[in-house]
């Protein structure tokens, strides 16, 4: 099995699940036990400053980071937060996912987000997308997803409403020309 860690799952146009329609999901972990990823293009109606207020973390409302949107990372454990960010060592629970993307789940990263000590770029999600053993592979066979190596520029530098389209463009295809039928020889 080839791991899809540090790849994007791009929802096919035929995928009509309300949570995953036209999503780009960054795969953080994929092994024989299953997969875990974060949807990076579904902002919710909560800003970083509002989220930090809700969990009693002091923050600087005048910092532009406080106005960033929080994202719905997936339908699983929507009460758990994840921060994807550009590399910055020193947080208590960071994991390097690639040379330019880290994930941190500890409160110390949240406390830094509206300060001069924050990562250069970040994205907060609430919840995650999870697949049990073999489930993602089956969905790939069913033609639900396109897969491409992740690029941090899509996560951190592309407006959320353009991320799906930009990820599809990386494939060099016209998404409107794709069939929803999977071919198996």
TrEMBL record:
InterPro entries: AlgH-like. Pfam families: DUF179. It comes from Pseudoalteromonas aurantia. It comes from the Bacteria. NCBIfam families: PRK00228.1-1 (NF001266). One of its GO terms (cellular component) is cytosol. Belongs to the UPF0301 (AlgH) family. This is UPF0301 protein CWC19_02765.
């Amino acid at each position: 099995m080839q791991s899809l860690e540090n790849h994007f799952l791009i929802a096919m146009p035929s995928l009509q699940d309300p949570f995953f329609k036209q999503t780009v999901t960054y795969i953080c972990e994929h092994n024989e036990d299953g997969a875990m990823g974060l949807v990076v293009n579904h902002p919710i109606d909560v800003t970083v400053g509002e989220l930090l207020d809700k969990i009693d973390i002091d923050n600087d409302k005048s910092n532009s980071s406080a106005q960033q949107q929080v994202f719905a990372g997936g339908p699983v454990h929507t009460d758990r937060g994840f921060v994807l960010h550009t590399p910055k060592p020193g947080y208590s629970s960071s994991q390097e996912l690639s040379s330019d993307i880290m994930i941190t789940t500890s409160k110390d990263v949240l406390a830094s987000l509206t300060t001069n000590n924050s990562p250069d770029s970040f994205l907060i999600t609430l919840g995650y997308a999870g697949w049990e053993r073999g489930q993602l592979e089956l969905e790939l066979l069913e033609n639900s997803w396109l897969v491409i190596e992740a690029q941090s520029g899509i996560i951190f530098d592309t407006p959320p409403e353009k991320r799906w389209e930009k990820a599809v463009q990386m494939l060099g295809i016209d998404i409107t020309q794709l069939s929803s039928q999977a071919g198996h020889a």
